[in-house]
Automatic annotation (TrEMBL):
Domain of life: Bacteria
Protein name as catalogued: ATP synthase subunit delta
GO molecular function, one term: proton-transporting ATP synthase activity, rotational mechanism
General function of this protein: This protein is part of the stalk that links CF(0) to CF(1). It either transmits conformational changes from CF(0) to CF(1) or is implicated in proton conduction. F(1)F(0) ATP synthase produces ATP from ADP in the presence of a proton or sodium gradient. F-type ATPases consist of two structural domains, F(1) containing the extramembraneous catalytic core and F(0) containing the membrane proton channel, linked together by a central stalk and a peripheral stalk. During catalysis, ATP synthesis in the catalytic domain of F(1) is coupled via a rotary mechanism of the central stalk subunits to proton translocation.
UniProt cross-references to Pfam families, sorted A to Z: OSCP (PF00213)
Homology family: Belongs to the ATPase delta chain family.
Keyword Transport part of the UniProt annotation: yes
Primary residence: membrane
Membrane topology: Peripheral membrane protein
A single Gene Ontology CC term: proton-transporting ATP synthase complex
Localization: Cell membrane; Membrane
InterPro entries xref list: ATP_synth_OSCP/delta_N_sf (IPR026015), ATPase_OSCP/dsu (IPR000711)
This protein's UniProt keywords: ATP synthesis, Cell membrane, CF(1), Hydrogen ion transport, Ion transport, Membrane, Transport
Length: 185
């Protein structure tokens, strides 16, 4: 992805400053909001990447949209605009979030399921995450109504597929490889 290395450097600097000011949690909340807002708004994303729109307008728009953000977050807008890198804001936010998780020895897990997770299911998923990785994780539940049932868990580069479709496919492969069943076909 374009600018990932630069975004990593900016995120490292922002988290370093946030640590010094004991504001890592507040800036983390801001970065979550920034990441989600930009990802969900094509207009904001194209405005930030547009070479036609002046930097001052971009900075003013960000200050208005994220007016409740921490001072460190606001100053990061200024630095990104001054350096002509404001188009990297979404990537910087994601990099900050990743560094925050590493710093706190936690991670984000994405659970895709047919229905929203109940508290009981969240606890079971947290147990599975702890079993797989040895660490806790913050859960993000993605509802996919096309799933028959079960769930798919992604933590970093690990994936645990406990979906009904996966189990049916595995059973189908086992039956195809079974010499007794294959004689009846």
């Amino acid at each position: 992805m374009k600018g990932t290395r630069a975004a990593q450097r900016y995120a490292k600097a922002i988290i370093g400053l946030a640590k010094d000011k004991n504001a890592t949690d507040a800036v983390y909340d801001d970065m979550q909001s920034i990441s989600q807002t930009i990802a969900n708004s094509k207009d904001l994303k194209s405005m930030l990447g547009s070479p036609v729109i002046k930097s001052g307008i971009k900075k003013s728009a960000l200050r208005e949209i994220f007016k409740d953000a921490h001072a460190i977050t606001m100053s990061s807008f200024d630095i990104l605009v001054e350096n002509g890198r404001i188009d990297l804001l979404e990537v910087v936010a994601r990099q900050y979030i990743a560094r925050y998780y590493t710093m706190n020895n936690t991670q984000q897990a994405i659970v895709t399921s047919a229905v929203p997770l109940t508290k009981e299911l969240e606890d079971k998923v947290q147990t599975k995450i702890k079993e797989l990785t040895g660490n806790e994780a913050s859960l993000k539940n993605v509802v996919d109504e096309d799933m028959i049932g079960g769930f798919v868990l992604r933590v970093g580069d690990l994936q645990f597929d406990a979906s009904v479709a996966n189990n049916l496919n595995r059973l189908k492969r086992e039956l195809k490889n079974n010499t007794y069943v294959s004689k009846f076909n």
